[in-house]
Structures are given as C-alpha cells and as structure tokens.
Write a structure and sequence with these properties.
heterotrimer; A mainly alpha (357); B alpha+beta (183); C alpha+beta (365); A: mainly alpha; two-stranded antiparallel sheet; C: 365 residues; alpha+beta; Ubiquitin-like (UB roll); five-stranded mixed sheet; 13 strands
Chain lengths: 357, 183, 365
C-alpha cells in the first residue's frame, strides 16, 4: 500500500505545470505566427499586420477566429477517421515534447520545492526523439487520407525527409552525449551551468560547434521550415499534405508547425546554450542575496530569450533562403550531414579519450 | 558555330571552390542582407490614414462640367459613348426649350446621361473625345458599394455642383485637372 | 441601238478609260472609282443643272485633248467640264489641286458654326468628311460668323441656315420634283439664305427629299431631331407598297423603334430613288415595313461602328441545355437605368424630345 501512497500535492503541482506549459506554448505559437508575419514584413520593407488591435497584436486571434468560422470540408473519398486524426496527431506530438524540457530551476512555494520541469526523465533526449519521430505520422496520415496525389507526394516527401534528417540529428547528438554522459535534460543543463564565466564557458555549443550546426540544420528539416519545407511546397505541390484541409483542422496543422518551432528552439537552447543558465552570472551566489524564486524566474527569462532568438532565426532563414530541390535535400542529408556527424562523433570520442588518459 | 555578332562574351564557368561549396558564407551573406532590410525605410503607405498623392494624370471618377454660369456643357453628341471601349456610357438628348437657357449651354442637351461604373475602365477616352469640355476625369475614386444598381451613375451623381448656388462644392470638385485643361 | 455612241479616251491620274462623248470629268472619274474621284458638294447626278458652285471638285487638266494638247490654264470644275478625246486629268496626283481644295474647304468652313456635336447630320455629313480629308487645324477668319434669323420650314424640315454652303441642291430638287417651289435663295452675297418668301411651310409630297440631298446639316429631319446620333442607329433596307413613290427606303432603327426613314443612297451619297413624305415622316413603325437586311455602310464611315452587316446573333442555348427552362434574369436594366426607358417611344414623338417628354415619364414611374 505504501507504494500507492500518492502525493496529491505533486499531482496538483504537475497538473498546474502541464496546463501552464500547454497554455504558454499555445500562446507563444499564436504570437509566433504574428511575429513571423511581422518579421517577413520588415525584411521585405513592409509594415506587416497592423489593423487588428494596437500594432496588429490581435491579428492571431482574428486569424484563429476566422479559421474557426471557416467551412469544415471533409473530402468524400478520404478516410474520415484518419483524416481527422492527422492534424490531431500533429498537434499532440508537437505538445508532448515540452514535457521533458526544464523550463527553469526549481522554485519554492508554500514550503515545497517545485521543479519547473514536468518530468525529469533520465532518458529525456531519447523521449524527445521518440516523440518527434511520431510527428511524421501526422503528416503521413493527413497526406494519405486526403486521397489526393499532391497530398500523398507531399506526405511521402515529408516522411523520407524527416527520417533522413533524424539520422544526422541523432548522430550529432551522440557526440554531445559522450561529453555529458547523461540523457537527462536537467542534468545536461546543470552540467553547463557549472562552467566558467557564470556558466557561459560550460555551454555545449563551445565544445560542439559542428554538432550544433548539424543539429540546427536537422531541426529546420524536422520542423519542415524553409529551406526544407518540401512537404508543403506551395508552388509545386499546392500546399502539400494539408491541401484538402480546411477550417480548424488546417489551423491545427499550421499551429503544430509553430509549436514545433517553439519546442525545437527550446531543445536547442537547452542542449547547446545552457538552457535556463544566465550567462556571466553565478546563479548560486545570486540566489543567496535575491532568493531562489527570483533567480529561477530570471533563469526562465534567460531560457525564453534564447528561445526567442532561435524563433527569430527560424524566420530569418525562412525569408532569406529559397527552398531546396528534393534531390539536393537528400544529397545534403545522406551525403553531407551524416558523414559529417559521424566524423564529429569520432573526433569527439578521440578527444575525450585523449583527455581522460 | 560562328557567332552572329562580335559582342559574344564567353563565360568561363569554374567549378565551385571549397568555400563556395560549403554554402555557409553565402547563406550568412544573404542573412545579413535580409537583416539589414529590417532597418530600411518601409515602402508601405497606411491607406486610410495616409494617402498617396495622385499623379497629375490620374484618371478617376467622371464629372460632367458646367460653365461659369452653371449651364451644363454636355450636348449629348455621343462622342464619348462611341469612344468608350467598354461601352459604359449611354445618353439621350433633348431640345432646349425657351425658358431653359439658364440650364443648358446649347440648344441640345443631355436629358439623360449614364455611366455604368462597373463597365468603366477609366481610360479617359471620353474626356479626350469630348468637344465641349463637358466630361473630365476627376481625382477621386468611384466609391465601393454593395449593389450593382448603385454603380449606374446618372446625371445627378455626375454633374459638378452649381458654381453660383453651391460655390464651395464647385470649387472642391474643380480639381487641378480642370485647371490644367483650361490652360 | 442604231446609233453607235462614239467613245473617247480620257486619262485620270494615269488611269485610262473609254467614255461616251459628253461625259463630264467627274462622271468619268466615278466610272473608274476609288481614290481618283474628286469630292463633290453641290453636284448631284439626278438633279439637272446642279454643280459648278462649290468648287470642291476642281481638277487639273494637264492635256486638253489629242487635237489640242495644251494644258488648261486654270483648274477646272470637273462636274461641269466635258471630257475630250485624249484628255489627261490630274486629281490626287496634282499638288495644285490638293492646295486649291484645301483653300476651298477653308472657304466653305468660313462661316460654318462647327456645331457638329449637336448637328443631326454628323456622321453622314459630306462637309465633315471633306474637312477631315482636306481641312486645316484652324481657321484664319477673324470676324464674327454670320448668323440668320430663324426660319420655320414647317413641321417636317428643320433649317439651320448657318450650316448652309449654298449648293442649290434643295432648290433644284424642289424645282424638279415638285410642282411649285416655295423656297429659294434670298438676298445676295454674304446675306444669301435659304428661305421661303414670307414664312410658308414646305408641304409638297416630295419635298422631304431636300433633307437627303443636303450635303450638310442645313436641312434636317424634324421628326428625327436630337433623337439619337446616326452612328448609334442601325440602318436597314426596307420597302413598302406606296402609291406615289418606290417605297424603297433605309430605316434607321434603335431596337425595334424606327427613328428615321431616308431614301437609299449609293456609294456617292446620292439618293437612289426619291421617296415621298408619307414614307419618310409618317411610317415610323417596323410593322409598316418589310425589312430586307442591314444596309451596306462603308467601313470608313463612323456608322459602321455598330457592325450590323453580316452580324450573326448567337442563338440562346440556355433553354436547350436546361430542358426548356427559361433563363432567370436577375436584373432588368430598365429598373436601374433611365436611358432607353421603354415607356417613352421616341419614334412616336413628332418633334425632338424635350424636358417635358422626360419629366412626364419620371412622374409616371
């Protein structure tokens, strides 16, 4: 019976955290769409949305509302169940990854230490990979069940693209994992925080620049963002796998992309940029004078600004670089990134062995 | 093959160097360009608040002109209608009666004059065809509306305000374009 | 034919033709046709004694005849000069003729009010064509153009004396078609005017033909006055049984309405068959006529802009496709547009439409 002694407070706390993070990522994703349009606009010497609310801040709400009121069309020849499942799956897998990301160190409320991470799984990275590879099913199912040639081609493209780039992604991470020796995201962050200059020198990007680059490219590909947005290629596949979708089902697909972007940015920041580490500040000494909670919040702000930077990078790249051709995409994935990642892994291994000797 | 002109320039295409094949420098260069555009002056004109000044040759809504005494210039000669490539203009003429000299400038006048604004392409050929300086294109848009009906403009909508009875309206309607035509 | 008419050879603008003795240069040129034909404002084939007044048909005779090859010293009026054997004439090839004709046009337009926008003749006016081909951009005349007191010529014919070029065609017409001419040229010189002596209405049965022979807009049809521009009406050949004339006319229609009836005209703008006043002024209904088909209009005329000739009206396929269902019209243009109001039958009004015509209808609707 003791095994079943459940800490009700823990469940409540986790539930609150889950609810908070889901709401938070949805709001962020919403405003990422707004940011995307604004960034695209300013990079093209335009102004961008500025009609709904001050500075157009209510634009995402208006867009969402519009999508809700659109006519819901399910093609006659589609597989109804799968057709509905596609966007749902996309959305769910996009949200799931956020569970293992440490959003900050712990805070103290009512005498309890509350970790700002939903689950500190010791195989956190594996979990991320597992969930992300499920994400391809959203695209596959959506594209296949639409019963439309373009959608199917897009879905097949998406699947093979994600599989190809997941390989390089995994290989680039192995080098990182050899250094950290842990799969837990929290441990990785804490290891980075212990570096010199208030943690800055511990950032993995300094030790794994090539690994970071490969990982970043793969993340772009995983998120189906330009220059790797072949599954939705507007001009050749006519919006690809979500061609047949309308109303909020389409909204879910579009939304999932932005949630994915947000989560990927969080993962990149966590693995390579010290997560909630504030650079050049020793959190432990600061916590003594300011208190744990404030430092935890500051850490969260730090993480968030890193995420914001990566989100901007996503958009920046999108409005700079044109789309790959499919053979170029495959060429880059299999012939360039995978050998590079392998080489990176071997070099890392040699260096580690050298220093440990 | 012999070249047709002596201006042919043979381009030597060399294989990409290692740095070029990396693509990364080119990518960073491109990103620097897009980033620099964030700080450039925006080309957008926020329409309802800001308005772009019309070019002096802008062709907008048609106006039927009156002379200084407020008499209608139009004599329903039909040249605008025959010049109109969209066949948007129709009219019916009538004879001026004894007591109507203050209304119409000549013995014939347009009793009915209609322009179908849905058809009009604002080419300005009516203005060019008019021998009486009776129709000109102003610097206003045809306002949008919900019904097709409201786009068939009759003389009431097209006539310029009376220069004596409604001086303000007349001056407002007599835009720079008319001034220019008078010269 | 017992008597063989002697043919003589004449060359106009390097084109030779054999014509019978006694032909005028103008007639010879018309036999050749095309661009060598000099324009004529006063000459009318069917009117005896016409011609020689307007001077637009001036040509240069570069060789008098085979017998006397000297050129004629001055330009001659081709309508009144007979051809000689071996005569060589220059019309469009002579810069002198071109120059003289420009001068003639300038003189003809000296007192012309240029009120084409309100003139019913516009579009079929010979003076307009002449001015278009030979006219200058502006006039050098600095004085006030002459004006006249208005003469009323009765219920059918409208006189605009300011437009008159004094060609005398209407005078000859009245002389030769009617028993008693009641109008003529009064006064002399600059004051010459077409008028009746002490106002009389022109009411002879055939007097309507003066409208057709008038080369300008001086005599126009009062029943057609201001009703439409000629180029918006559709000319069709039609005929009817008529006691006093051939009954062969051209109807100028708008839709089914007959706005105007004129005699048929040949390629020189001359009447083919004279028609009577009843046909011209009284029969303003399609039902009165047997319609033969669209009149041939030269493509150089603005009247051809309607492209009625050879036009095939596409058949309505809607009801065939939709099992006999009639197309549903969503908007009746008459509910929106005030122009071409079906409640106003313009052809039924005798004179021009006035404000009363239209005010009446607006009250009704």
């Amino acid at each position: 019976m003791e095994m079943l002694q459940v800490d009700m407070m823990l469940i409540l706390e986790k539930l609150l955290l889950i609810g908070g993070i889901i709401t938070f990522s949805l709001v962020i994703a919403m405003y990422t769409t707004y940011a995307e349009r604004k960034v695209a606009a300013v990079m093209q010497d335009r102004v961008g949305p500025n009609r709904a609310g001050p500075f157009g801040l209510l634009q995402p709400l208006a867009d969402g509302l519009k999508l809700f009121f659109k006519e819901e069309i399910i093609p006659l020849t589609s597989n109804k169940l799968l057709f509905v499942m596609g966007p749902a799956l996309s959305m769910v897998t996009a949200m799931l990854t956020s569970a293992v990301i440490p959003w900050g160190s712990s805070i103290h409320i009512f005498g309890r230490e509350v970790s700002l991470q939903i689950a500190d799984v010791n195989i956190g990275i594996l979990y991320v990979f597992g969930v992300v590879s499920l994400g391809v099913y959203g695209i596959m199912i959506g594209g296949w069940s639409s019963n439309n040639k373009f959608s199917l081609i897009a879905a097949v493209r998406g699947a093979s693209q994600i599989i190809s780039y997941e390989l390089a992604m995994g290989l680039s991470l192995i080098a990182l994992l050899m250094m950290t020796g842990s799969l837990s995201m929290k441990t990785i962050v804490e290891q980075q925080m212990s570096g010199g200059w208030g943690g800055f020198l511990g950032w993995n990007v300094l030790y794994q620049p090539l690994g970071f680059l490969i990982f970043l490219i793969c993340v772009f590909a995983e998120c189906n963002r330009t220059p790797f947005d072949l599954p939705e290629a507007e001009n050749e596949l006519n919006f690809g796998y979500h061609q047949e979708y309308s109303s909020m089902k389409l909204g879910f697909y579009l939304f999932a992309e932005y949630v994915n972007m947000f989560i990927s940015s969080a993962v990149v920041s966590t693995l390579f940029f010290g997560g909630y580490d504030i650079p050049f500040v020793n959190e432990a000494t600061l916590a003594l004078s300011w208190g744990d909670n404030i430092v935890a919040m500051l850490g969260f702000v730090s993480l968030f600004s890193k995420i914001a930077f990566f989100l901007f990078l996503f958009m920046w790249v999108r409005w700079t670089i044109p789309r790959f051709r499919y053979d170029q995409l495959m060429d880059l994935g299999w012939k360039k990134l995978i050998p590079l990642a392998l080489a990176n892994m071997i070099i890392t291994a040699i260096v580690i062995l050298w220093f440990n000797k | 093959m012999a070249s047709l002109t002596n201006r042919v320039k043979v381009l030597e295409q060399q294989p990409l160097s290692f740095m070029e094949r990396l693509y990364l420098p080119a990518i960073f260069k491109g990103m620097a360009i897009t980033f620099s555009h964030i700080f450039k002056k925006k080309a957008t004109i926020r329409y309802p608040e800001e308005k772009r000044p019309f070019s002096p040759v802008f062709r907008g809504l048609q106006v039927l002109n009156r002379d200084e005494e407020g008499r209608e210039n139009c004599t329903a000669c039909g040249l605008c209608a025959v010049a109109c490539p969209a066949e948007a203009i129709t009219m019916e003429g009538a004879e001026r009666q004894k007591n109507e000299e203050h209304l119409y400038r000549e013995e014939k006048y347009a009793a009915k004059y209609e322009i179908n604004m849905l058809r009009c392409i604002f080419c300005g050929l009516c203005e060019e065809a008019c021998p009486k300086d009776a129709i000109y294109l102003s610097e206003t848009f045809a306002p949008s509306n919900f019904t097709r009906k409201s786009f068939i403009y009759s003389k009431d909508e097209l006539l310029i305000p009376h220069p004596i009875n409604d001086k303000e309206g007349y001056d407002a309607a007599r835009v720079s374009r008319v001034e220019k035509l008078k010269k | 034919m017992a008597e063989e008419v002697k043919k003589i050879k004449v060359t106009i603008d390097n084109i030779s033709i054999d014509v019978p003795m006694g032909t005028t240069i103008l007639q010879a040129a018309r036999m050749i046709g095309g661009d060598v034909v000099p324009p004529a404002m006063c000459y009318y084939t069917k009117l005896e004694g016409s011609g020689g007044k307007c001077r637009t048909c001036l040509v240069e005779v570069s060789k008098g005849s085979e017998a006397d090859p000297r050129p004629m010293p001055k330009l001659v009026a081709s309508c009144r000069t007979g051809v000689m054997d071996g005569m060589e004439v220059k019309n469009m090839t002579s810069p002198k003729v071109e120059d003289a004709r420009n001068g003639v046009v300038e003189f003809l337009l000296l007192n012309h009010p240029l009120d084409c926008p309100i003139c019913d003749q516009a579009g079929e006016c010979h003076l307009q064509d002449l001015g278009y081909e030979h006219g200058k951009q502006g006039t050098r005349y600095e004085f006030k153009r002459r004006t006249f007191d208005k003469h009323d010529l009765g219920p059918y014919i409208q006189l605009h004396m300011t437009r008159c070029i004094l060609c005398y065609r209407c005078v000859f017409t009245a002389d030769q078609l009617t028993n008693k001419r009641v109008h003529g040229i009064l006064s002399r010189g600059d004051h010459s005017e077409i008028a009746t002596h002490i106002e009389k209405a022109l009411d002879n049965d055939f007097i309507g033909n003066v409208i057709d022979v008038c080369p300008v807009g001086a005599l126009t049809d009062k029943t057609f006055r201001f009703k439409n521009r000629v180029w918006f009406t559709k000319p069709v050949n039609a005929h009817r049984e008529c006691k006093c004339c051939s009954g062969k006319v051209t109807l100028w229609q708008r839709g089914e309405e007959v706005l105007r009836v004129t005699a048929r005209k040949d390629q020189w703008g001359e009447v083919e068959d004279w028609i009577c006043n009843e046909c011209r002024f009284k029969k303003k209904q399609s039902a009165d006529w047997t319609i033969e088909g669209p009149t041939h209009v030269s493509r150089h005329s603005v009247i051809s802009q309607g492209h009625y000739e050879g036009m095939k009206k596409p058949t309505e396929t809607f009801s065939a496709v939709h099992e006999g269902r009639k197309p549903k019209l969503l908007m009746d243009i008459h509910s929106v547009s005030e122009v071409n109001d079906p409640s106003i039958d313009l052809s039924a009004i005798d004179g021009p439409a006035t404000s009363a015509t239209y005010n009446h209808s607006t009250k009704k609707s």
